[in-house]
Amino acid sequence: MLFLVFLLCEAWFEFIEIQDYSRQQILEQSRSIRDFMMSTRYVYHHQFISSGLPLTDDTLGFLPAHALARISEHFDQINPTELSFNNVSADPRNIYNRADSIETNVVRYFEEHPQQKEYFEKVATGSRIFYQYATPIWTEDYCLRCHGDADSAPPTISARYTTGFNYHVGDLRGIMSVRIPVEHFNRHVRAQLLSNVPVIMAFLLSLCLLMYWLVQTTIVHRLKGLLRSVNFIREGHYDRHMPINGHDEIADLAKNFERMAQAIALRENRLKQSEQRLENAQRIARIGNWQWHAGRNELFCSDQIYTILDCSPDSVLTPRQFIRRVPSSQRQRLFEHLKNSFATQQFDEFETVITAESSELGYVRLRGEFESRHGQLLLSGTLQDITTMKRAEQEIIELNHSLEDKVAQRTEQLQRTNKELEAFSYSVSHDLRAPLRAISGFSQILQDEYSENLSPEASRYLSLVVDNSQMMGTLIDDLLRFSRLNRHELKKQMIDTEALVRQVVDELLQDCVYTFIHAPEIEIGSLERCYGDPALIKQVFINVLSNALKFTQKTSYPHICITSTHQGEIVTFNISDNGAGFDMQYAEKLFGVFQRLHHQSEFTGTGVGLAIVQRVIARHQGTIWAQAEPNKGATFSFTLERYVE
């Protein structure tokens, strides 16, 4: 088959090549005839003019147009190829030079395409097919001696013709027509093709034999080896090496098969490991898988289910046998569940008591889902032993009951303790304030009435006593306020934060106890509304802004900026200043009670304000943090719940 295909293809290509070559030869032959005839035409004309012969009916045959027509007529009679030629015109004066319909179309072609030098096409006249070749005949200078002005033409010409005058150089007069029949052309092509066929057949036969040998040695033999190796892979021998060498496609295919076998072996090994891990996981979790073929009423169970039910894996567990293991008190509930599952094609989780072979009652949980396979309805799922979990749940329930009793007792104790703490706080506050007021009052009297009798050192001591007693009073107030925070019931509502901050700023500036080099500049941005307890949130802004004012009092141009940002339902407030700042390595002490990062002589305070702020923010489920740098200010940030309408 391959030989025949090659033979036909080669014969076809040879035929096309010979045909093209022969056609080119015909074209070259036509050009040669044209050149010869045009040369003859030129020589005839000049020879006649130079001879001085008078133009008569006897000498008229020497003119090129007449002479070529006669030569063509005699050539056609003696030429066995039936080749013909002539100079013809669509408007001849000589009837032998009249163009036929094909030549008339060629003349028209040259009139429409004056830039074309030749014409060569296959044409048909009746049942005959020819190759038509033509070149244009243009009017030249020597033509005008007879066909220019009628008055200057030879007398014989002017007396013989009424037309054929007033031509100009370059006018299309006619065409030189050469016509060769296709039969001659086809005979040549067939003869040439038949002479080449034996050589082609011998060459192709040798080529096919060579290809057959090459295919057998380089492809078929190696493919058989590859097939044997693939059969080994199919049988599960993934470690067999494929003896296919080389760098071609078959070698690449063999290498790919070998890599595929290695990959299959690796995956099979991983699959076995996964199956082993799954089996171990099912054993540890006390869970097995099952499949119920509803149409055939067949039940498949994994080994773990037989272990859970304490029965032999060699026995066959049927759906009826499984249902019998469910106590009669719960079978109706199981039947209803199965009925609803098949009706809705959805198997919900189901828990029931079940009896093992050892007659021990246990709890199992069933899960499953429906699938259709080959038109059959299957119900696949898992069975998990939850006996231990159920017993643990029962123990948890019993423990919760006991814990509830203990919590109630502890709550009652805590309430009594809180009341005692409140009474103690009130007592401490009352008992401490009385002596502090006495100390402060008597010390103030001594300063006012006996200062003249006191030495400067004694006056300084009295001032220290007064200042420290007042500071002690402030500290007691802050501690009491801090201790009451957890007992304050939160009354959350929408807070217009911007209005609240402006109110706090006005109050702080009116009651400001600090002295500034220049009045502080407080910039309040467009603040998001938040959701919280207005009184406590106001205390947060009071404490943080008070700190900002306190720590910027020694700054040349104090500046405080309050802004907010939000992300989702959380709003973050930022209060920045350009005051004293602090070292970030001590930042963890900021929000502790009595924790201070500056000495009392630099900035006054009790160290409770930020602890109160942190406690309030925590009660609102927010967070607070700070960023600072010594002598470059600080930024306190805290989050609250954003109010969304």
Q: Could you characterize the architecture of this molecule?
A:
The chain has 645 residues and is of the alpha+beta class. It contains 15 helices and 16 strands. It has helices at residues 2-51, 64-78, 101-112, 144-147, 155-160, 182-234, 249-285, 303-308, 319-324, 328-344, 387-450, 456-484, 497-510, 534-551, 609-619; strands spanning 84-88, 119-125, 128-138, 172-181, 287-293, 298-301, 350-355, 361-373, 376-385, 493-495, 521-524, 530-532, 559-567, 570-577, 624-628, 634-642. Strands 10, 11, 12, 13, 14, 15 and 16 form a seven-stranded mixed sheet that branches. Helix 13 (497-510) packs across helix 14 (534-551). It is elongated, with a radius of gyration of 60 Å. 18% of the residues are buried. The model has no long low-confidence stretch (mean pLDDT 76).
Number of helices: 15
Question: Structural class, please?
Answer: alpha+beta
State Rg. Answer: 60 Å
Termini separation comes to 86 Å
Q: What would the average pLDDT be, to the nearest integer?
A: 76
State the major sheet: 7 strands, mixed
* Low-confidence runs of at least 5 consecutive residues: none
The proportion of residues in beta strands is: 15-25%
What is the number of beta strands?
A: 16
> What is the 3D form?
elongated
